[in-house]
Amino acid sequence: TLALPSSTSTNTTYTWTPTTTLTGKLLMVAGGGGGGGLDGGGGGAGGVVYSATASISATQQTIVVGNGGEGGDGYSSGANEKGNSGYDTSFTGLTTAVGGGAGAGQSAFSNGGSGGSGGGGTDSPSGGNPTGGTGEAGPPRQGYNGGNSTSTNDGNGAGGGGAGGAGGDSTASVGGNGGIGVDYSSEFTTTYGDSGWFASGGGGGHRSGTAGTASSGGGSSGTTNTAVTHAQKHTGGGGGGIGWDGLNQSNVKKGGDGGSGIVIFSNGSSSGGGTLAYGSSTTYQYTGSDQTIS
Predict the structure, then answer these.
(1) The model scores a pTM over 0.85
(2) pLDDT value for 151
(3) Rounded distance, CA 101 to CA 123, Å?
């Protein structure tokens, strides 16, 4: 039986008591990091934890599904130009999937945040080559590092790391691409995530050149001077970074939000299984092997 969930701005908590011990496939994805709001690095994807033979006992299980981190504010916001890290996803007795790292923003906060996958760095007005955040190497590996900024004060952001590969570095003319996600369509069909893909990194922004793009897995691409599309919900994708819109807009969010996380369990029979996502509010009795709760 799945009890009524409880949601906050950072996560949704479920309790589930299986009627018998279950063994099956379990996927946990944390919330992705938000992209930076000025010369923004892409947000890192949420950490991914998968087991093909997870054993779930017939006792109360607590499942927490993390939300994505918000994108950073626009020009002249200082520390707030950096995105926010995503939030963890956890399941009783199992390894926690770590939220994605924040994408960097320019104003002296130029290194990407660490997390499940690391956020992308951005250029530094004070010089140097800021680095991307570190992904959770494990074991088990949950994601990869964010990209580095390879030039100074050129308005470029690097890509956020993905669960399947590192974020791309940025240059004076090109923002870094987000790291690739991971494909679980064979295990859980294309119904879930981004047609079965999860946890790609957000693309880096660029104020004058070409912004970085995101690949399959729910991350959003960066932009040059327009507000960024948020990452896809229930994928753990990282939010894209923005270059600069030419306006002094402190305290106005410009970077893309990270995608919220998800938990999927399937034992391949009619005795138990389901999909739990951030923000769900429906009580559901598990009767199918792969049911969605939303």
Answers:
(1) yes
(2) 66
(3) 17
